[in-house]
Design brief:
Blueprint: H1 3-14, H2 86-89, E1 95-101, E2 104-110, E3 113-117, E4 122-126, H3 132-140, E5 142-147, H4 153-160, H5 169-172, E6 177-178, E7 187-188, E8 193-201, H6 205-208, E9 210-220, H7 222-226, E10 232-234, E11 240-242
Antiparallel strand pairs: 1-2, 1-5, 3-4, 4-9, 5-8, 6-7, 8-9, 10-11
Length: 259
């Protein structure tokens, strides 16, 4: 063998045959990226309508009263002295208030009173501190409110013209005292109704001479319950008004809770 052949043989023994490099797998096909839709164009801002021109205010039409509905007519008035408003605002019938304290009795004529409640039944009474009854009622804390009718008109006026400090009014005017059921003050038998009262609020006496009483017992003549009695109502300046016609003509207009 030639030296060249020998070298080639030795070289072949020395380096084993290299394995052929495996062919690289072809890269996986990637899906094509879907084409993105172009973003919609932003709508241009809506055109605002021009502000409507303000219409000139319509001229107010003169109020025309409907001819189909005849309402009450306005009443023409003149100035009136405020010290005489009692002529229009006297609240109720003239009453006789009887009282008693430590054996002394009195009767006073009173026109200033008002109902202040129903349950309990409350009556507010103005009793001037110059009246003899003022002291008797304040000390005893009781009285009787008696309702006279027009038949006792002269007696009612005369009782108001004298003082219980020096006059026994039951004796002077021939009235009959009857004992109260719930209070120590006497009832006047000749009156059509008698309300026995107890003083429940004295807080306004010093300031306004206003007594607040609770009616604890009531007495009324059957005839006065069925028909309205003819009571006296004082209008000031020596003028009286006598209770007149009673009607239930407008009762149906009231709601039940208002009766």
């Amino acid at each position: 063998m030639t030296p060249a052949t020998t070298k080639r043989a030795a070289k072949a023994k020395a380096s084993p045959k290299a394995k052929p490099t495996p062919k690289a797998k072809p890269a996986a096909k990637t899906k094509p990226t879907p084409k993105t839709k172009p973003a919609p164009k932003a709508k241009s801002a809506a055109k605002t309508k021009p502000a409507a021109k303000a219409r000139p205010a319509a001229k107010a039409r003169p109020t025309v009263k409907s001819k189909s509905v005849a309402g009450p007519r306005p009443v023409k008035k003149v100035d009136f002295p405020v010290e005489d408003v009692r002529r229009f605002l006297e609240p109720g019938p003239i009453v006789l208030v009887s009282s008693s304290y430590q054996g002394e009795t009195d009767i006073m004529t009173m026109g200033w009173h008002m109902v202040m409640g129903f349950e309990p039944a409350l009556i507010g009474c103005y009793i001037w501190n110059a009246n003899h009854s003022h002291a008797l009622i304040r000390k005893s804390k009781v009285c009787v409110v008696n309702v006279p009718t027009v038949e006792l008109a002269e007696t009612v006026v005369d009782i108001g013209n004298c003082s219980g400090r020096d006059t026994d009014k039951f004796d002077k005017f021939g009235l009959t005292p009857q004992p109260g059921v719930m209070v120590s003050a006497p009832l006047i038998a000749e009156c059509v109704a008698n309300f026995e009262c107890r003083l429940v609020d004295a807080s306004l006496i010093d300031t306004y001479s206003l007594f607040v009483f609770e009616v604890v017992k009531a007495h009324a003549a059957p005839a006065a319950i069925k028909t309205s009695p003819r009571t006296l109502h004082y209008r000031g300046d020596g003028a009286f008004m006598i209770a007149g016609e009673t009607t239930r003509q407008w009762r149906r207009r009231f709601r039940p809770e208002m009766l």
